[in-house]
Specification:
The complex is a heterodimer.
Chain A: H1 2-7, H2 10-40, E1 48-53, E2 59-74, E3 82-90, H3 94-97, E4 101-105, E5 109-113, E6 118-123, E7 129-138, E8 143-145, H4 147-194, H5 200-232, E9 235-241, E10 246-250, E11 254-258, H6 265-281, E12 284-285, E13 290-291, H7 294-325, H8 330-344, H9 347-370, H10 385-410, H11 413-421, H12 426-455, H13 458-463, H14 490-500, H15 504-544
Helix pairs in contact in A: 2-15, 4-5, 7-10, 7-12, 8-10, 9-10, 10-12, 11-12, 12-15, 14-15
Chain B: H1 2-52, E1 60-68, E2 75-80, E3 86-91, E4 95-100, E5 106-111, E6 120-127, E7 132-137, E8 141-154, E9 157-165, E10 173-174, E11 181-189, E12 192-199, E13 204-214, E14 221-232, E15 239-242, E16 248-252, E17 257-262, E18 270-276, E19 288-293, E20 300-304, E21 309-316, E22 322-330, E23 337-342, E24 348-353, E25 357-362, E26 367-373, E27 379-384, E28 390-395, E29 399-406, H2 414-418, E30 433-434, E31 445-446, H3 449-480, H4 483-498, H5 501-518, H6 520-543, H7 546-549, H8 557-583, H9 588-596, H10 605-629, H11 633-641, H12 646-675, H13 678-683, H14 701-708, H15 717-753
Antiparallel strand pairs in B: 1-29, 2-3, 3-4, 4-5, 6-7, 7-8, 8-9, 8-10, 11-12, 12-13, 13-14, 15-16, 16-17, 17-18, 19-20, 20-21, 21-22, 23-24, 24-25, 25-26, 27-28, 28-29, 30-31
Classes of the chains: A alpha+beta, B alpha+beta.
């Protein structure tokens, strides 16, 4: 029986099925892992107090949240080894305890307790702090204890939050804009000098303008000082942390303080979404290991947007040429070989090309011709947004071409012939009938190109993406879109924070969350592209019939 | 009325004309757009070639000036400043003459502070960078002088002011009263100075060690003598050479016999070995005419009367003893070597011979960059500008020749890139990639072999994972699977293709690598157990009563297997640790390293193979699945009707027909695996080693570019080599993509015929 079964090759069919099952499971578990690990980052975890046996027979108390589990080996090969389960507890307070994390043997944990009043205090520096609020000294020097302390603590944090926002606004956009203008004046002076046209009138005018800016700057600085003083004098919280030590914590060091052990399920869900929103909308802190990823999202979107402007017309024109104009021959074959090869060239090669050609040759040329006054510091002669966008446009060109071509090929011949028979010229036929019908396909190509560009990292590492950009590529200063600026990018953020960060353990949850976001973006783009394509196919099926 | 009609006609005519123009304009514009795509690819290729080409260009000489040299007889020593503006020559009588390099006009002239009747009998440059020269004198004393060129700018014009100074003492130090010093050598290392001399008629080397002492109230330095040692030697050395690390001193005579003195025990220098640089040389047919160090003062360059130059350096063997080995030789010049000068920033050197020719060489690259005849008569001395961009040579007739040299990238040759190269300090020739280091006399190692090896290794392991899974899955999805399931399964696998590789790489590096390290035996058990379980399950399924089997029709086996795989995984989870405890001492990676002698890196090739395999699977799958699915149905039905089982039809009919498509799928997948950057960057340790071991890391061409490109200086050799790496990748994928495309076109034709 078995022999016959094998002779018919049935086991091979099962093996084939196994291969497919494995691939499917790999995809789903990969995405599942990302979803799980990514979302975990936002879920407010309970703060535990672990009573742990120390080596000397005594007990120590650890306060923190369980970060992950692991195991360690004990014994040696002769005596036999045992795997002892461990957990990594995030204890926070890096400046107090030396490290954020502590490994604990699970069997050594005698008791785990979740006191209601344990707080997670998120700080601007040194990571989280876990502990209990003992008392609060407000700005008048009055000491508040008990339940009232928690309430006024929260309201003071909120007060500081709004002060902090104002501070950041002054620091970043207002002072930033003045600096921009000052730099503009310097460049103007240098430009006139280079042209040998710097007159006393100009010097006087520039000095006058500079004086106005300086005055504004002084005013802003005074404002800032005031705000700073105000935020510094908001009050001080006394927090009892691990080991019973009481830490003085000025309010202006606190981002937020929560009591996860006290939260009900609904409150936790609320906090969960609040944290997601914070993650999406705020700037990173502490070398990107904490805070949000807003600049990376913004940079990615801007980059992709600019790329679209380049790749779309170029790709569509090339596809139209191949489908509608070119006669089959050597040239067309060459174009097809080129397109195919563009699609197959490793992305890092595009990066090298972008750096060598766009940045060092075109960029240097532009600097020499138009930005002489800024030299030797390069304007376009260094990696930046524009060059990254152009490099990606070249990289995604084949995607747009192939997709557009497919769309064009699906437009029935009869429609073209009908239009031509009615006396329309070729371009009119194209413009009025063929292209509109193929537009969903063009859309599909564009979406796929965007998805590819959003996930591409290797070439961007060379042509304009950095770990921390000082400002966004679009702001209120002329010319509003700064094509020469370096940007942050989601994919690069994952690589950088995950592998170059000084505190990888603390940064990991954030990397998972970023990865999940990126996957979400890319997959939803792809799914929408597939949906549009299928709709298009259906539509033409009905026309053909 | 008629007028109106004509108006209308003319209006419509001009409209027609406009439409026609528009049509033509559009035709040209679109044509241009299409050709621009070819343009882009050609531009890319041309750009890469243009960036790489300078690496393989030879050096060129260009005559600047020729003039009669200023008097006082032939030079013993010549030097030039950074900008080849002012030159220096020292004559045997002790005259130091600074003159304009281009005209010979004397700028400054003075005599060394030595007694009138005393002449210079030997000399050696102690340091090119400092300009320190050690002179051995005819009265048996020696003197250290320092030449320098002060550069100043007045009104934007460069002014070079030469300066002669005496860094330690401005009077000679007596070594051997009354006996001319025929060979001297000196070297500084930190605060220590080692001077060595051989006096005429003696049978011993004199070695004197000093320490620099800073004077309290002036910035003068004096030398405090620590020790003097006399070492008896059998030969009469012509040259004494102390190496840069103060490890060795070579005393060499003209017949090539050398006594090597070990200086590593600073207190007790001793004779380490006797070496014959010219082999037996019994008849004395070969004769050394010039000896010099290469940059870094580790390698000796030996120039012979025949024009041959040989590089030697000490090589440490397994027993920690040193051998002195000839490493490579050059024989492009045919006359006795007169003078050799090492470049100050690269491992290149310039050689003047007795036929009036000058050659430019690079040691590591084993490359002769140019040989040019500068004069009709023998050259007697030569100086190389510090930036290696000019040569000033003096010939026997007293004529000076200043030539500009253009030698941008001597470091690269085919040999360096793809062959084993014997680098200084290595026991044997090796493939090594090490592009930069902090010290200036570093020998860059630009072998692309470890990187190409790493690339192929990563691609190989990735294909090992991807090919079986992707092709088998494609066979199943394209042939056996129920259409309803196919509809939903295909997009899911293809979704994996859209997954950014940075995410796969990140998961591989941060999740999979530690996971595998902890569950290594489990992984191998799973590999072995899963097919077995599936086999058994399949057979049992076939024996089940029809009533059960009918519930799951044919073509849904894959869905049925999901729980089977999960249960197997669970079983493996239970088995893993006990097996590890029983056979591998509880920790398989440690066991591999200690017991099996196989190195284990956490981020190793296995991780890369799995991660990159996963990234390549959807590419191979979707092309292969298309090829299998598109096999004409009448062929399949014919086979089935003749009584073949589905699998037999698969093997006998479907696979042969679809084989070009499968081949093309594998090629494209391979091309992708070769060029993939982020996964290998994040999932390996990026160590450029050549080791086939699956548990060791690797570095690929692409990852290397990503790591090093941002730091390389534009236009430098390193920068261009990285371009070369990119070009290699480009050509590689170009080849495989074109191959795949050609095969695909063939397949299309074949289907067309069916």
């Amino acid at each position: 029986m078995l022999n016959k079964w094998m002779k018919e090759g049935n086991h091979w069919v099962w093996f084939n099925a196994m291969a497919l099952t494995l691939s499917l499971l790999a995809v789903t578990s990969l995405i599942g892992l990302l979803v799980f690990k990514g979302m975990q980052h936002f879920w407010p975890k309970d703060v535990a107090v672990y009573s742990v046996q120390d080596g000397k027979g005594g007990q120590v108390k650890l306060i923190g949240e369980q970060h992950r589990t692991g195991e360690r080996l004990e014994g040696d090969a002769q005596a036999g080894v045992s795997h002892i389960p461990q957990m990594l507890v995030k204890v926070g307070g890096r400046e107090i305890f030396g490290a954020d994390f502590k490994w604990v043997d699970e069997p050594a944990v005698l008791a785990t307790d979740y006191p209601k009043d344990m707080m997670v205090i998120e700080r601007y520096e040194w990571g989280n702090l876990y502990g209990r609020l003992v008392s609060l000294t407000d700005s008048d020097g009055k000491k508040i204890t008990g339940d009232a302390a928690q309430d006024s603590f929260q309201s003071l944090i909120a007060q500081h939050g709004s002060l902090y926002e104002k501070l950041v606004d002054i620091q970043k956009s207002k002072i930033g804009s003045i600096n921009h203008s000052v730099e503009g004046l310097r460049l103007e002076r240098r430009r006139l000098e280079l042209k040998n046209a710097l007159t006393d009138v100009d010097i006087a005018r520039l000095a006058e303008e500079r004086k106005v800016l300086d005055q504004k700057y002084a005013l802003l600085l005074a404002d800032m000082e005031k705000l700073k003083l105000l935020s510094e004098s908001l009050g001080v919280a006394e927090v009892e942390v691990m080991g019973g030590k009481v830490v003085q914590l000025p309010i202006n060091k606190v981002v937020a303080a929560t009591l996860p052990n006290e939260m009900g399920a609904f409150e936790k869900v609320g906090e969960f979404f609040h944290k997601i929103w914070e993650f999406l909308s705020t700037d990173p802190r502490e070398a990107n290991t904490e805070g949000g990823i807003f600049p990376a999202i913004f940079g990615t979107v801007t980059l992709v947007f600019i790329m679209t402007f380049v790749v779309m017309p170029f790709g569509v024109v090339a596809a139209v040429y191949l489908r509608e104009y070119a006669k089959d021959g050597f040239v067309v074959r060459m174009v097809r070989v080129s397109v195919n090869n563009l699609a197959g060239v490793p992305s890092i090669v595009y990066g090298v090309f972008g750096l060598g050609f766009f940045v060092y040759i075109v960029g240097h040329g532009i600097d020499q011709a138009f930005y002489q006054e800024a030299l030797p510091s390069p304007t376009f002669g260094t990696s930046g947004l524009l060059w990254a966008a152009l490099t990606l446009a070249l990289l995604t060109l084949p995607v747009v071409i192939v997709s557009t071509e497919e769309g064009l090929s699906r437009v029935p011949r009869a429609i073209r012939e009908g239009s031509l028979a009615l006396g329309a010229t070729k371009i009119e036929t194209l413009w009025r009938t063929v292209l509109p019908m193929a537009s969903p396909a063009i859309m599909t190509g564009l979406i796929l190109a965007i998805a590819r560009a959003a996930g591409e990292v290797a070439p961007l590492m060379l042509v304009g993406v950095v770990k921390l950009a000082p400002s966004l590529p679009i702001d209120g200063n002329t010319p509003y879109i700064h094509l020469d600026q370096k940007i942050m990018h989601l994919g690069f953020h994952i690589h950088d924070v995950g592998f170059q960060s000084p505190n990888i353990e603390a940064a990991q949850p954030l990397v998972y969350a970023t990865a999940f976001l990126l996957v979400l973006i890319v997959i939803s783009l792809n799914i929408s592209a597939i949906a549009i394509r299928n709709r298009l196919r259906e539509r033409f099926k009905s026309i053909d019939n | 009325m008629s007028i109106k009609i004509r108006d209308k006609q003319s209006i419509s005519q001009s409209r027609e004309r406009f439409r026609a123009y528009k049509d033509i304009a559009a035709r040209y514009a679109i044509g241009a757009g299409g050709l621009a795509v070819i343009g882009a690819v050609l531009l890319m290729m041309a750009f890469f070639f243009l960036q790489v080409a300078p690496l393989f260009v030879s050096a060129t000489f260009e005559r600047v000036t020729t003039y009669e040299h200023p008097s006082h007889g032939a030079s013993l020593l010549m030097a030039m400043d950074e900008y080849r503006d002012t030159a220096l020559r020292v004559t045997a009588s002790g005259q130091v003459i600074f003159f304009k390099a281009e005209t010979g006009a004397i700028v400054q002239e003075q005599r060394l502070p030595i007694p009138d009747h005393v002449t210079i009998t030997s000399h050696q440059v102690m340091s090119d960078a400092d300009g320190d020269v050690l002179f051995g004198l005819s009265d048996g004393s020696m003197l250290i002088a320092r030449y320098g060129f002060m550069i100043s700018y007045t009104d934007g014009k460069r002014q070079v002011t030469p300066k002669l100074s005496f860094p330690f003492e401005d009077k000679p130090v007596m070594i051997s009263e009354g006996n001319a010093l025929t060979a001297v050598s000196g070297r500084t290392s930190g605060e220590a100075i080692l001077l060595s001399a051989f006096a005429k008629g003696s049978d011993a080397l004199v070695l004197r060690r000093f320490e620099k002492k800073q004077q309290m109230f002036s910035d003068e330095t004096t030398l405090e003598e620590l020790a003097t040692v006399h070492l008896a030697v059998k030969i009469t050395p012509r040259w004494l050479m102390i190496d840069g690390m103060l490890d060795w001193m070579y005393a060499v005579d003209e017949k090539g016999n050398a006594t090597v003195v070990s200086l590593r025990d600073a207190e007790n220098p001793s004779v380490y070995s006797e070496v014959s640089f010219l082999g037996d040389n019994v008849q004395g047919a070969r004769r050394l005419t010039s000896v010099s160090f290469l940059l870094g003062e580790t390698s000796l360059l030996l120039g012979e009367a025949s024009g041959q130059i040989t590089q030697w350096f000490p090589v440490r063997d397994a027993k920690n003893s040193y051998d002195f080995m000839p490493v490579r030789s050059f024989h492009e010049q045919q006359a006795a070597i007169v003078q050799m000068g090492s470049e100050q920033r690269r491992k290149g050197f310039v050689v003047a011979d007795a036929h009036g020719e000058v050659g430019i060489y690079h040691a590591t690259a084993h490359r002769t960059l140019a040989v040019e005849s500068l004069s009709h008569v023998a050259l007697v001395n030569m100086a190389l500008a510090p930036r290696a961009n000019a040569v000033l040579a003096e010939d026997a007739s007293g004529t000076m020749h200043l030539w500009a040299v253009d030698n941008e990238h001597p470091e690269i040759s085919y040999e360096v890139l793809w062959n084993k190269v014997w680098y200084e300090g290595y026991a044997e020739p090796a493939f090594i990639w090490q592009s930069s280091s902090s010290n200036s006399d570093f020998e860059p190692k630009f072998s692309l072999m470890p990187l190409a090896f790493g690339t192929l290794k990563a691609a190989f392991y990735a294909m090992l994972v991807a090919i079986p899974i992707a092709l088998m899955a494609a066979m199943y999805a394209g042939f056996f699977m129920a259409p309803a399931m196919r509809q939903s399964v295909k997009p899911v696998v293809e979704l994996l293709e859209a997954l950014p590789t940075v995410i796969i790489g990140f998961l591989a590096g941060l999740w999979l690598a530690p996971f595998l390290e902890k569950n290594l035996p489990g992984f191998f058990i799973f590999l072995f157990l899963l097919p077995l379980v599936v086999f058994v399950f399949g057979y049992i399924w076939s024996r089940l009563p029809d009533a059960v089997r009918v519930k799951i029709p044919h073509g849904w086996e894959a869905a049925l297997l999901v729980p089977v795989v999960l249960v197997t995984l669970f079983l493996v989870g239970l088995l893993g640790h006990p097996v590890e405890n029983a056979f591998f001492g509880g920790d398989m990676p440690t066991w591999l390293t200690n017991v099996a002698g196989i190195g284990y890196d956490q981020r190793n090739s296995l991780v890369v193979g799995i991660a990159m395999g996963l990234a390549v699977i959807p590419i191979i799958f979707s092309i292969a699945e298309d090829a299998i699915y598109n096999v004409p149905k009448h062929q399949v039905n014919g086979s089935l009707a003749l009584g073949a089982t589905p699998w037999q039809t698969m093997v006998g009919v479907v696979l042969p027909t679809a084989s070009p498509g499968l081949f093309s799928a594998v090629m494209i997948g391979f091309g992708r695996a070769v060029g993939e950057t982020m996964i290998v960057l994040m999932a390996t340790g990026n160590t450029p080693i050549m080791d086939i071991n699956v548990f060791e890391g690797l570095r690929t061409l692409s990852a290397n570019i990503a790591v090093e490109m941002p730091e390389s200086e534009v236009g430098s050799t390193h920068y261009r080599v990285l371009f070369l790496a990119a070009l290699v990748l480009f050509m590689f994928t170009f080849f495989f993509n074109t191959l795949a495309e050609v095969v695909r076109q063939r397949m299309l034709k074949r289907y067309g015929a069916l």
